[in-house]
Amino acid sequence: MSEKQLSVVEAELYDRQIRLWGIESQEKLRAANVLLINIRALGSEIAKNILLSGINSLTILDDGIVTDEEQAKNFLLSKSSKGKKIAEEVLLKAQALNPLVEIKSDTDSPSSKDSNFFKNFTIIVATCIKTDLLLKIDKICRANNVKLIYGDVFGSFGYSVADFQDHDYHEDQVQMKKRSHDGVGKTEKTTVKVQGVINYSELNKVLILPNTKQNVDTIKKLRRRNELFFLMLVLMEFRNKNNRNPTEVSYERDLKTLNSIKKEVYELYQFDESKSKLPADIFEQVFDEFVPVCAIIGGVIAQEVIKAVSHKEVPINNIFLFDPVTYDGKEETIGA
What we know:
Elements: H1 8-13, H2 15-21, H3 23-30, E1 33-37, H4 41-53, E2 57-61, H5 68-73, H6 86-89, H7 91-97, E3 102-106, H8 115-118, E4 123-127, H9 131-144, E5 147-154, E6 157-163, E7 166-181, E8 184-199, H10 217-220, H11 227-242, H12 251-268, H13 291-310, E9 319-322, E10 329-332
Helix pairs in contact: 2-3, 4-13, 11-12
């Protein structure tokens, strides 16, 4: 991706954030072409933040139809949107957020797209998809040097998983240096540009589930994990089986399914459930989808998109977990 020189209008519009992360980073953002897979409650928050950051283009891929429930959670939809294609209905309000960004809608199913479609983006942001499709997209991204981040929200629990491959970055660090002037020693603050590289693991070495055909020996190489990682895997497997979040409508059935999947995950990772520190009623916190948590996770994912595209600041490597009980954010590095 080459940098795109800012026009006078763009420089004025993005003046505040240019002061924050610099003209070079803003030019990289202005050249970025982003694919957002599914623009539901979480996706709308992500879209808002990355549109305001000043990217070049946003393609929205979503084959969903607007329902009453979706209408209540998605601020990019209007009262007349019910029964229509989500990807098309969000365009008007999304474009109003930043008229300088080119926005496209695609109402095809994400699973129907071939590798040629995915390889043309700078970064792909995925939500609400099954693991097999996520791993397929990750392979395509790695073959074409496209960065990928995935996230989801279940109740008051949310997470993101990133594969930025071999990602180089720089950050400005303030250091104290001693200087001598006219024989008098002084300590002054100096800003130093520090560079680094993070090597991300392929997602098939990060997201190993009971029903994925992966080499389970990889699990033995992983260091001890935060238990919220297991919760994430349980909910990913629930989506794989049901293509939805757990809901209050089917509470008893979904609770039984969640506990069954939890046993499979603990057995796979050889984790002693009696040593679990998660609350016994943790699954009561993961039903449906809480909009305030979507706003938090949407902000985190958008922040990581900006870091990945601009190469400014250290991105999360490679998982972010939002605790549904304490509302703390936790970072984990998972992979071989």
